[in-house]
Amino acid sequence: MSAGLTLTPESNKMKGFITISQEFCKGCEICISFCPKKIISRSDRFNAAGYLPAAFNNNGECTGCAICALVCPEVAIEVYRD
Amino acid sequence: MTKVLMNGSSAIAEAAIRAGCQCYFGYPITPQNELTEYMATNLSRRKGCSFVQAESEISAINMVYGASLVGVRAMTSSSGPGISLKQEGISFLAACELPAVIVNMSRGGPGMGSIAAAQSDYFQATRGGGHGDYRTIVMAPSSVQELADLTHRAFHLADKYKTPVMILGDGILGQMMEPVKFKHEAPAEPPIRHDALRGAKGRRSKFIKSLTSNDTELEELNWSLFRRYELIKKKETTYETFLADDAELVVVAFGIAARIAKGAIKTVRSEGLKVGLLRPVTLWPFPAEAVQELAKKVKHYLVFEMNMGQMIEDVQLSLEGKGEVSFYGRPGGVIPTPSEVARVISRLYYQKGLSK
Amino acid sequence: MKTVYSRPKSLKMAQFHYCPGCGHSIVHRLICEVIDEMNLQEKVIGIPPAGCSVFAYHYLDIDMAESAHGRGAAVATGIKRAFPEAIVFTYQGDGDMAAIGTAETIHAANRGENITTIFVNNAVYGMTGGQMAPTTLPGQKTTTTPYGRDSILEGHPLKISEMLALVKGTTYIERVAVNSPANIRKTKKAIKKAFQTQIDKLGFSVVEILSPCPVNWKMSPLEAWRWIDKEMSQEFPLGLIKDTTGRKDAD
């Protein structure tokens, strides 16, 4: 589901991590605006349906608060936390 | 076997309870209120049963749809105007292959019409008043005993073919009282249909629906219904003949009109006219083969209905031109007398130069 | 690394057909979360309406049966009367419940049927392309009010939930929205309470959910979510409308 994204946490202060299904996402960008850390952005790669899905910037800021998953209309986001 | 003096509407209700009907949803409309009231008295307090007077006939048929979903025998009743309101629901029942019994004690129409008996809902019943390619089994009793028997049969056929079944009575049959024998006792524990929708317990979830965006899926549904209707035609068509063996002229009539015709036929028979009766009991499927059989020796038919002429089309269709069909009808709730019909029969008989 | 959030068990692994930013799919997910948490998957029967959410049975892994447009409350009555142990909910849009289905809704409520109605109010007829609904706001443009809803000609937004509160048979009615994290959490709480009301046999429960319909509102998803706060909830104030579940007699 999270084709192409590496799963291994990169920095030691990593608390949370999310995966966004590139095919389920319809690029509504709701998660982008509600993410408190502003670490979700629009991907520049179209998915099969022609949407530009959301992309997770794994810079260690993610706290695993799951607001993105909460607001995602497509249940495209899974959230993990230490 | 209990024998009771009862009016037709109540006999239907009693027969339904004895057939294991667990849910009745109705709405007041003359001339079938006794049926609703009987259920309010006798069904509502039975264990596992439920009676609801709905806010409209539309709501009532959809409650039947709901009860049928969860696998119980359910029923509604009304008269012409209410049956018109139920047509969408009946089409949904047919499409979702859900059994249900719908009773129409028909009355004068169109419009608000009258509360007198009439047979002007024949097309609506037999041609399917709702949308889409579907048929409903339609049975037309002509006595209180037959009202009870056909109600029992209606529940049986509905479950057997998973289809809505209609009893087409009329205002007279509903109101008149005749002795009736009830041949069945209500089941202690009414059965729940095996394929019912009662929660995904011990199986995968499932859904019952008739909307599809896949044309071939809908086409296949229609074909499967069509195959079922052919089977019903072959196995469930019923009719009665009366003094038809040596008949030169056969009257074709259903329901209360058939009883009036029987009286007329007895009169003309006493004057030596060889007249018989064909009485379709299932209006759909129509007894076309019986007509074809008669057509081998009978050339003249008089279709007598209490409407402007509706069943006559099925008679003509079945005859395929192999017989001359005349019509006598009194619409609007007017109830012809046997002697009136006897005069019509004998005038026709002589006009056609039939032998005595 | 532990999973904090994932797809509820009773939500099928299927991609929604809904438009980007639509509220229906969120409501579906919340219902499934509640069904999981209250362990109702084997007991619940859902009645989707005619409307965008008619295909709910492709997503909710529970027994469901389609009702004719507007007849959900009657179908649910039939089910509940025939099989009282089932937990029955109708899922209806504003047209389904407050236009064609008004009579069925009000009378099921008046009979105090022990059923739950999930009422998704998005102020338009979505599936048919964005026509005016009973809850369309004054001045709101739809395909059948191209010049904006004119109250003189087309009447005012119908407050069906407030109307139902006047009916004795209803015991819990709340209006929520799925246009922000906080509101989505409240929506889930309301759905849970509504199901609990039914389980406790306390009468008719309704959860009205203001839901974004970006495509038919001709807005971006985010604008639609914001429009609910700015405009829609002024006309349809969020909050508890009725709760008499506390008192056993639910009078």
Outline:
Chain A has 82 residues and is of the alpha+beta class. Chain A has 2 helices and 4 strands; from the N terminus they run βαββαβ. Chain C is built from 9 helices and 10 strands.
Explain this structure.
The complex is a heterotrimer of chains A (82), B (356) and C (251). Chain A has one domain: 2-Layer Sandwich (Alpha-Beta Plaits), CATH 3.30.70.20. Chain A contains 2 helices and 4 strands; from the N terminus they run E-H-E-E-H-E. Chain A has helices spanning 30-34, 67-71; strands spanning 16-20, 40-42, 54-56, 77-81. Chain A is globular and about 35 Å long. Chain B has 2 domains: 4-236, Thiamin diphosphate (ThDP)-binding fold, Pyr/PP domains (Rossmann fold, 3-Layer(aba) Sandwich); 240-351, Rossmann fold. Chain B has 13 helices and 15 strands. In chain B, strand 11 (249-252), helix 10 and strand 12 form a beta-alpha-beta unit. The radius of gyration of chain B is 21 Å and the shape is globular. Chain C is α/β, with parallel strands linked by helices. Chain C has one domain: Thiamin diphosphate (ThDP)-binding fold, Pyr/PP domains (Rossmann fold, 3-Layer(aba) Sandwich). Chain C has a 7-stranded mixed sheet, with helices on both faces. The chains are: A alpha+beta (82), B alpha/beta (356), C alpha/beta (251). Chains in contact: A-C, B-C. The B-C interface holds B 22-23, 25, 50, 52, 54-56, 58-60, 62-72, 74, 88-89, 92, 96, 197-202, 204-211 and C 41-45, 50, 54, 57, 60-68, 71, 73-83, 86, 103-104, 106-107, 111. Strand 4 (77-81) of chain A pairs antiparallel with strand 1 (2-5) of chain C.
Based on helices, strands and strand pairing, what is the structural class of chain A?
Answer: alpha+beta
Main sheet makeup of chain A: 2 strands, antiparallel
Spatially, the strands of the biggest sheet of chain B line up as 3-2-4-5-7-6-13
Mean pLDDT of chain A comes to 88
Total helix count of chain B? 13
Portion of residues within helices of chain B: 40-55%
Oligomer: heterotrimer
| Total domain units of chain A | 1
Question: What is the total tally of β strands of chain B?
Answer: 15
Low-confidence region ranges of chain B? none
Which architecture of chain A does the CATH hierarchy give at level 2?
2-Layer Sandwich
**CATH topology description of chain A:** Alpha-Beta Plaits
Beta-strand portion of chain B reads 15-25%
CATH class of chain A, please? Alpha Beta
Largest sheet geometry of chain B? 7 strands, mixed
